[in-house]
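Open question from group meeting: does this chain pack into something compact, or does most of it stay loose? Before anyone orders reagents, we agreed to write out a predicted structure and look at it together. Recording both the input and the output here so the notebook holds the full record.
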Amino acid sequence: MSTPYHDYVKHLQKLADVENAINVLAWDKEINLPANGAHFRAQQMATLSGIAHEIQTAPSFEKNLAVLLTEIEQLNPAQAKNVRLSKRQLDRSNKLDKDFVVRRSQVSSKAYHAWLDARKANDFSLYYEPLAALVELKREEAQRLGYEGHPYDALMEEYEPGATTKDIDQLFAEVKTQLSDFAQKIRKLKPVDDHFLQQNFPKDQQWEWGLALLKNMGYDFSSGRQDLSPHPFTTNFSPQDVRVTTRVDENNLSNMAWSCIHEGGHALYEQGLPVESYGLPLGKYISLGIL
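Structure tokens returned:
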């Protein structure tokens, strides 16, 4: 027999399926996409982003969520937390219409491909206008979401729920004060000899060593894979499919080594998320600070 919570879970898992289809296209965009494929890939991702927004803000879902909130005491703690977090996300999503969500996806895709061109040509001017458009769009998003202090507070909620620009400024001011003396001491020490990292290390050997490094960290290759990309990143489509990327400089071993360790750390966290909570708030990372 169907219950409001069962319907809630089913709806969010449908949303997760669409969002993860977008994520697969985004992963492929950075790994395999041919140069001429950029235009239609941006269109495909924008279309799916619009569909995801429709699912997220569906009136039937909002109505069911309202029912669950009135029956919150009948749910177990995990279920109640999921419902409350979903209500917070729904309130945010309702402030962004479908047209804006589609446009945001398109602008982001254009900025990414412009960054690739600028990086390859070592020419920031190729990136300037797409980046400016992206910044302007994020300002619009902040206005739509609303904020009390700094505009970035509205955007930070997506990554560090409850944190504000004021909080982060204070945190880093304290860190700067505490680390100042320590940094001065380090500057007076003899630099570490890392010349051995600057030798020639063939790409294939680096690649195999990176795979071994990830395996020794505990990364599960039966639930993930590593590929090459212009900039290393981690993405996941479920706890059983968490992927990392790296890049190789044959004359600098640290480039690949540190990215494997860094992205591998993200991946270990995401491979450890509860499979049974797929699509639900408790099946996602707590915050980017924790992740």
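Observations to bring back to the group:
The chain has two domains: 4-146, 190-283.
Residues 150 and 165 are 7 Å apart (CA to CA).
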